[in-house]
Design a protein that fits this description.
The protein is mainly alpha-helical. The protein has two helices and no strands. The longest helix is centred in the last third of the chain and has 36 residues.
């Protein structure tokens, strides 16, 4: 019985230690996310720009693949 209670006491101490550490970290300003953040309009604009870049890269890749295929066929 004593061993069980001793083990339980140790687990509770560990839990308390983890909880205290989390409270300390959550209270520090370095961990807090900045206020305001990115607005929905800005995120939409970023997504549109990334889509345009993706389309340009896909077109470039398709052109490169097509050119490599033509070169292979032309040399054989």
């Amino acid at each position: 019985m004593w061993y069980q209670l001793s083990g339980l006491r140790e687990r509770l101490r560990s839990l308390q230690s983890v909880a205290a550490e989390r409270c300390r970290l959550l209270g520090s300003p370095a961990v807090r996310p900045p206020r305001g953040g990115t607005g929905p309009e800005e995120l939409d604009a970023q997504a549109a720009a990334v889509r345009e870049q993706e389309e340009a890269l896909r077109a470039e890749l398709d052109a490169a693949r097509g050119g490599a295929g033509r070169r292979r066929r032309g040399t054989r």
